[in-house]
Every structure is written in structure tokens, then in C-alpha cells.
Amino acid sequence: MQKCIAFTICANNYLAHAAVLAESFKKNNPTTDFYIVVADERSGKVDYETFHADKVVFIHEIISTLELETLSRKFNITEFCTVIKPDVLLYLQRLGYVFCMYLDPDIEVFNPLGDIFDLQAKHAIILTPHICSSTKLDSTPNDYHLLRTGVYNLGFGAFNLNVTGSFIKWWKDRVMAYGYRIDAKGMFYDQIWMNYAPAFEESTYILRDLGYNVANWNLHERTLLRKEGQYYVNHLSNPLKFFHYSNFRIGNLPQIAAYNKEFTIENREDIKPLFLGYKSKLETKGIEFYEGIQYAYGCVADGGEKNKKPGNSKNNELTLGKKIKHSGKFLKKAVKVWTS
Fold this sequence. Notes:
Strand content: 15-25%
Strand order of the largest sheet: 3-2-1-4-7-6-10
């Protein structure tokens, strides 16, 4: 049996989310290792032994100090957490892991995910599309909006490291050069590059099971059912595997995502208990405390200059609807960026 692992990446400010993910993953997959990779410096305020993970790894244990400094000058917090994903996969490969699954920290697992590891024995990469059927033309978001972010949502991705080494190294090179979010230039973090996966890796598997990666953007095709405390998708023979609470802010309820104009917990009663339960779990895990921890590298996506470090005067300055400057020679002119 090949060594299997699942992992997530976040800064200190998202540790409440990571704790919910880790606890839900280990509850349903107790024999599979789960790592939290902290893309931040260790905080003396945090007890990192309380997150239900098998191990908490800090990014400075994975990449060099010089590379870390370079990346922190180039990328904001969201970009940084995504562009290091290939580095983490290569790190896990060095530890002897073969079947690796990435999950965004704002995911909650509801059932065992062993089917993914079974599929990895035959497939190099496993991806889930944002949607498996078309949206209405006037929906927000619709299939046009989603296409601009990539066909596949990289809140989930599974990789057989025995056969994807060259692909991951290629992916690393591309995100280090183009891992920004600049919609006008077709840049969308690390995610947009997965459009190439089915072309570059012949054994890529597109997972169309609607119980995986349920999120605000695919609710038009997925209805939650609940029976005896268990969630199902569309029918009782299809259990909910995991839900992705992307862009959810607990203070914005009944809104489930800032950009989603179609659905709220008021017009979708089926998702209401799920979101209220997740809100309660985040509060129990201390979301208010963790969100108050200052990010150590670069800048936060909506925090302007408050997180600049001494001697790091060229950090990105990024606020919603305003222009920013990326340091270094790669991008020198101001561009307009939307924050996720």
C-alpha cells in the first residue's frame, strides 16, 4: 500500500478553518495522515498542537529563507498560499508519500475519502470541475465567470507523485512567474494552470461525482438532503463527501459568498443548517482570535500597509477596487485586482 496523505495550507489567520477541516477529515479518515502547512511564521500566541492534525509544518521548513523572502515580496497572502502548493507536494514526495490530496482550509469533510486514494492507483491527477452542467446565462456567477478562473477548482486536487513529478515541477515554474490574481491578464493563482492537466497528463481523472466539492458556484445542480443526521446530494444514494465554503464570511450571513447573487441561506433552506453549523464550529475554534493575528509575510489581501515589515518596503499594496504595485522586475506597472 502506497503512503497516503492529505494536507492544507493557510496562514495563522485561517487556523480556525484549518482546525475544522482537520477534525472533520480525521473523523472520517482516521488512518490517513493529515498535515497543516502554515504559510506564516510561528506565533507565540498559538498552541499548534490543538488542531487535530498529525503534523503542523511551517513553510520555512520547506523552502529556503532566500526563496521565502523573494515570494513574500512578490505575492499577497492568498497568492502566496497557492503558489507554494507545488513546493509542498515535492516536500511530501521527499518524505515518501505517493498519494497526496490537497484540500482548501475552508472545506469540511462529511464522509470517508478512500475512493480518491483508490483512484490514484490508476490516475496521475484527480480534479473536480467547478460545475458539471451549465448555469443560467444571467446567473452570478455563471459558467462564463467560472471559466475565467479555470475549469477545475483547486480547492481540491489529488496527485500520484510517482508519475506527476515533471508536471508538478512545470506547475511550480509557472506559478512562480504567473501566480498572481489579475483577471484582466487571465491570471488566477495556481488554479488556472490545471486547465492543462488533462492534456499534459493522459491519465488525469475528472471526478464528476456531485458529492465532492459542493460549493456556492455549483448549487444550481446540487440540492442537499438530510436523513438521520447525514447529508446527501440530490438523492439518498449519493452522500455528501465534502463541502467547500469558499468566500464565506460568518458576519455576512444570510449571504454565503460576496460574489454569489443567486443563493443565500434564505432562499436555499437545504444549505441553511450546514452554514449555521459551520459558523458555530468556526466560532468554537476561535476564528475571531486567529483572524487578529498579523500576517508575517508580504501583505494581506485587504489590509493595505498594516502588515509591512521593516526593510520590506516594496510589499504589495492590495485593496478591493484599488490599484496595486507588485514589487520586483516581473510586474512593475499598476494593475487592477479583485480579491477573492
